[in-house]
Design brief:
By secondary structure, this protein is mainly beta. The protein has no helices and 19 strands. Strands 1, 3, 5, 6, 7, 11, 13, 17, 18 and 19 form a ten-stranded mixed sheet that branches. Strands 10, 12, 14, 15 and 16 form a five-stranded antiparallel sheet that branches. A four-stranded mixed sheet has the order 2-9-8-4, with no helix packed on it. The chain is elongated, with a radius of gyration of 27 Å.
Length: 285
């Protein structure tokens, strides 16, 4: 161990080897080294706002006196909402999606820290004013809300998500949060199935081992043209319980169970009412 060095001063070192016979001559000088003292980074608090029942894209940021790149992590989850995965923008900023609990109106908060590879920052608070009357949700794309799904413990179930984009754009589907299991997309892209821009995407929900109760999947879609920070968000409610292997799926509301048929009906005056009917049977061996 070398002690007594001064921060900001460059040093080179030579070494010798000693045994029972004697001591060697000094080695060649080492590369120049400079003592380093790390200053913990600083995270920046955030104030944001958004409409009710709408996801908000929030930018997190921080700084480091030593110029180190930062990583971001959530220190405490919001009490009245859900967070998506953190996306790194560069060495000093990142983004995260906040989706308020459905029906929640008020102030939501969560905290996060940054790390420079050596130390964590102090945790700082992100405050979101949910229901801000000056914030307006995007007109398109839209997502269908409150799908209800039943699943058996340990048995995967396929859920058909639905969205509508008036510009007929290809949609990017994003899962914000899951409870009671994991969810993965069955297809890589959405399917625009008619000239009105109605799209679907299948998601496979796999209940956690031993889980029984109320789960959910929260998602939103992005058409790449959203100039705001807001996204229409929807939730799939999943009731996990019952005998293994017995599942029933209601893919949207409103829905009608008619064996072997499927129909789409569209209203006038720019309003779209979709009835998606599915009859799915699953055999057990």
């Amino acid at each position: 161990m070398v002690t007594g060095l001064t921060i900001g001063t460059n040093y080179t070192f030579t070494v010798t080897a000693t045994n029972a016979i004697g001591t060697s001559g000094p080695s060649m000088p080492s590369n120049v080294v400079s003592p380093f003292f790390n200053t913990p980074p600083t995270a920046n608090g955030v104030n944001a706002s958004g409409p009710k029942d709408t996801a908000v894209l929030i930018t997190l940021s921080g700084s480091d006196a030593n110029g180190q790149s930062l990583t971001f992590s959530i220190a405490s989850q919001p009490a009245n909402g859900y967070l998506g995965s953190i996306t790194v923008v560069d060495g000093s900023s990142a983004t995260v999606i906040y989706a308020p609990s459905f029906g929640f109106n008020g102030v939501g908060t969560f905290t996060y820290v940054v790390n420079d590879g050596y130390d964590d920052s102090e945790a700082v608070t992100v405050t979101i004013d949910v229901g801000d009357p000056t914030a307006v949700a995007p007109a398109s794309p839209k997502v269908w809300h409150h799908t209800t799904v039943s699943a058996s413990p340990g048995t995967p179930v396929t859920i058909t998500l639905q969205a509508w984009d008036v510009e007929l754009d290809s949609l990017n589907w994003v899962i914000v949060n899951t409870v009671g299991g994991t969810a993965e997309f069955a297809l890589g892209t959405s399917n625009v199935i008619n000239s009105f821009g109605y799209s679907t995407m299948d998601v496979i929900f796999i209940p956690d081992a031993g889980f029984a109760g109320a789960g959910h999947v929260i998602f939103y879609v992005d058409d790449g043209n959203n100039a705001s920070l807001y996204y229409n968000v929807a939730r799939v409610n999943i009731a996990v319980g019952g005998a293994s292997g017995q599942t029933s799926t209601i893919v949207s509301a409103p829905a009608l169970s008619v064996p072997g048929t499927a129909a789409l009906f569209f209203g006038m005056l720019g309003l779209v009412l979709v009835f998606l009917v599915r009859n799915r049977s699953r055999s057990q061996t």
